[in-house]
Amino acid sequence: MEQLKERLPQVLSNFSWGVIGFFGSDETTLRNELGLIISLGTSDREVLLREACLYIEEILDYSKLQDVNVLDVLKNHPDVYNKFKIARILCDIHSKISNDSPIPEEEVLELCKSILAETQEDIFYQILVRIKCYLESHNFEVPEELIKALESFPRPKKVDYWGEYQKTLKDFDEKGREFHEKAKKEWELVKSGKAEDPIGSIQNIMWNLSEAVVYNFALRRFKLVKEAYEIFLQTYEFARENNLFKTKLSEDTWLGKLKRVNLKWGNDIRWYEDYRVITNRIIRLTRIAEFMMWNRRIPEFPYANPYINLGGDYEHNDSSLWALTKALMMILDHNRSKGNLPTLELQEEVLDYALRLNLLWPEDVKVLKCKDGKCIVFRGEISEDGLHGFKKYPFNADVVFYRGKDTVIGYSRMRKLGYVCGKEGVDKLIREALRPHKKA
């Protein structure tokens, strides 16, 4: 019982922050807190939020069976107690949102009171914005206290999205060159016999090559991609000739990050299991680069959907996965130009990530044909009056999704751009809902 009392504050703090993070769409919070203690297994934020709420209820039920009063335990931890109160209220509110039900005014007032007792972090502002958007979209009354609570927060800083996009491209450029040079220098040490720890050096080479290939591919620096592949082959031959595969090379903890991505690509070169992710990343992107340099259609097997389970693995600052998104946009566009169309599901998935990561910057309206439908990317403003039968799902203060039958719209309110994907009626929908972008 004493052990339970000792652990409750930390466990409830993690789960409470998890609920707050999922409800407010703050990926840093949800990865850093909830991701520490449960395996996420899905990218669906609503599912994860329900799961987190269930965990809290299970903890409360178990504590009750052990005759432990959770509120008494948390009295000595006021910060945890308030986060816990907020999380419990959010769980109740989320169940009502899931059923399109009204939210009792007293719940909103209690939430505002608890949130105003916290520091003015952006995540709490996002929570209140989401509730306000829900109430407005369902024509429910918005309590005056909710408006006042929102007004008490400092106004969000205006983001220069185009400037941030240019910074991202510059970051890709610097990291691509940096990782490539690191791998080359380390390989020279191994090749000349000057490496103090050949196994450790090979680990570093593989890691740096896999990162370099992603960034350089995303910027169409295909010559560097091919050079990385040559270094990779030479490193492989060195390891094979020196029997380094008989070591426990694959058990090092740095591979854990790569295993997260869970890419089920083939076994072109038989390294130990943990190496297949990074080696296949290098191999696949090199092959795809060659097809693009030859201006030929890319066979589907090399990239089949290299983003299996990616949504559950995205991190707020994992820029190599951002670069992979840019790379896949490029791959799909290349193959489309050769008459090889992607599935609607894959195209929408890529556009979803590109929009959220500020990588989607269409010059104008553009139609992206798919095997089972089409997507349209656009510049301009969405008029919600033209979206009949769609449910609104705000992702954050900028990005919002609208979902209807067989159709999804992703839209950036700040950048005034987005996409629509569907099986039929997409063109008509765009005509009715889009206020055209006026070129300067």
From TrEMBL:
<protein>
    <submittedName>
        <fullName>Uncharacterized protein</fullName>
    </submittedName>
</protein>
